[in-house]
Each structure stands twice: as C-alpha cells, then as structure tokens.
UniProtKB/TrEMBL annotation:
Lineage, top ranks: Bacteria, Bacillati, Bacillota, Bacilli, Lactobacillales
UniProt cross-references to InterPro entries, sorted A to Z: HXXEE
Transmembrane segments: 102-119, 131-152, 158-180
Keywords: Membrane, Transmembrane, Transmembrane helix
Name of this chain's protein: HXXEE domain-containing protein
Amino acid sequence: MKWYRRHWYSFNLIFLLIALLWAITFSHSRLQLILLLNFCVILIHQFEEFCFPGGGPAVSNIALAQHPVHPDRYPLNENNNMVINVCVGNIFYLLPVFFPQIGWLGLAPTLFGFMQLYVHGVTENRKLGTYYNGGLASVILGHVPLGIWYLLTAYHTGMLTIINILLAVIYIIFVAKVLMQWLGFKVLGNQNSPYPFDQTEMHRFHIDEKLAKKHEHD
C-alpha cells in the first residue's frame, strides 16, 4: 500500500492502456464511446496533475489552502489523495461507461469536466500567477471537447432532459460534498497524518517558486 499510495497515478496508466484498447477493439454506442474516452482523460488528467508536470499537492496545500500548517500532509496527504482520486473520482467516471443509457449518470462527469476548466483555468492560475498548471491541458484538450460532444449527442437522443440535468447536479453535489470533502478531507484529513507527500511530489513544477514570484509582483 505504501508504494501504491505514492505511485497510483502512474499505475493508472495500465488501466488507461486497457481502456484505450477497449475503445479501439470493441463496438460501442456513441455515448458509451464518449464516456469511455472521458474516463481515459481523467486518468491522463491525474497523471498530469500529480506526476508530469505535477504540482498538485503543493497547489492544494499551499496555493489553495488558507492556512497550511503542514503543507506536505494537510489538508491533502498521500492517503486521502489516493482515496479521493481512485476510489471516488475514477469510479465516478467509469461507472457511466457500463450504464450509458442512464442519462444523469453520464451527464454528471461531463458537467464536472467543465467545472474543472474553471478550477484549473481560472482559480489555480490566479493563485499561482500563471497561465498553465498541471491538469489544465487534459481539461482543455480532453474533457471540454468530449463534454461538448456528449451534450450534443445526448440532446439528439433525447437524454438531455431537465430531470437528468437536476439529477446530475444532485449527484455531483453528493460526490463533491460528501465523498470528496467530508470523507476525503474531514475524515481522512489530518494535520499529523502519517502519510505525507514525498518532497519530490511537493516540489514538482516548482509551485513554491511560482508562488514566491507572484508574491514579489503583488
């Protein structure tokens, strides 16, 4: 588990390869193919955010946290980061692949992808004083075009209904507020967590230097 907590985003590349082979080899409905590709993108997004170029731990604990007491382990640490992304995020994106006919189930990660555009494109760039941060490229090149494709397809197939939109929003709120924030940050978050990020992870993409440079200009 220690190795997996540290390298889960690299291990995900195996699942990325399997998902891409699945997309290429087998026949799918258009909606299922979009959802499968969207799952592939979230795996790429996580790798971009935490490995190359990385910087996700420092962005969360230093740039976004109001008063980071222990920036290598609070509010995000290696354990709750793994749980939030693997046990919650990956299932959130993978489940609708098997049930593409359930409109709200596929619409939820689609809308969440657009929300990621605001988080990475606006919020995090403002905090860092940059135009790019780890995770933004996969959102712009992956989640956004796939999201538009999904919405157009869902509209033409009659699945883009008010009920599905409302259920998707409720589902997103449940996943974000209960599973990610309450379980991930409240229950598994700990200022004295025994699962600190490795210093290599903390210094990827030179987030600390970018923040220092921004503070100098401010």
